Amino acid sequence: MNKKFFFIDFEFSMPDARLTAQGFYPEIIEAGLVIADKDQIVRTFSSYVKPSAFPVLTERCKRFLKIEQQQVEEGISFDELTRILAEWNEDGEQSIITWGNMDMKVLRKNCEETGLPFPLKGQFIDLSMEYKTFFGDRNQTGLWKAVQEYGKEGTGRHHRALDDALTTCHIYNLVEKDKAYMKKSKPPTIGDLVDFSQLLNRMA
Asked: Which residues does UniProt call coiled coil (predicted)?
């Protein structure tokens, strides 16, 4: 059975000066999930998520993410999101891949604040760090800048959770192909260099 890959992207709520003073922490307000088998996408999910600790989105958040208050109010609860994540990650065999480490940090923080168990297990991969290491970049590269460096375009619109998860999946496949291409072939053995049957015939 082929190993499947679980690509995740979340969008988070954002504070203003008033909320920062009230102990604000970011909550997941949109989720995009992708399951892929090698380079074939087999399942996707997208939903807004209703914040609970700080339920009213700031103007800064709505402006930056282009998400409206009504959209998150009609979204699923965070509890339901964790159930979906656990269901998709039921066997724990997938590599869980995100661009950057904030998605997992915010998920873990939201679980702690709501008293819910962290729903994911498996190998966690920060693709932005893999990309940085592979290309020898000094600084981490943004998701859409990375795909443009490949001469490609991102899927859909940046800062839409499912579009960013699909773009992460696309970059992962591009990087893996480059890694395979860059692997050094095994050095030839003496048997590869010399045709022993002809050598023995000459010696006979």
From this structure: none
Residues annotated catalytic, as ranges: 11, 159
Burial 29-52 (b: 16+ CB within 10 A, else e): bbbbbbbbeeeeeeeebbbbbbbe
Q: What is the mean pLDDT of residues 41-52?
A: 97
Quote the CA–CA distance of 99 and 160 in Å, as a whole number: 13
End-to-end CA distance of the chain: 51
Residue 199 has pLDDT above 50, yes or no: no
Condensed to tens digits (0 to 9), the pLDDT of residues 56-110 reads: 999 999 999 999 999 999 999 999 999 999 999 988 788 999 999 999 999 999 9
Range of the domain at 52: 4-203
CA angle 8, 162, 76 (to 5 degrees): 85
Alpha-helical regions (H) of 74-160: 78-88, 102-114, 127-135, 143-149
Secondary structure element (H or E) that encloses residue 18, with its range: helix 17-21
Q: Comparing C-alpha atoms, which of 103, 136, 132, 140 is closest to residue 120?
A: 103
List the CATH number of the domain containing 163: 3.30.420.10
As for how many domains the chain has, the answer is: 1
Q: Are strands 40-48 and 28-37 parallel, antiparallel or unpaired?
A: antiparallel
Tokens of 37: 């088998």
**How far apart are the C-alpha atoms of 76 and 187, rounded to whole Å?**
55
Tokens standing for residue 126: 């920060």
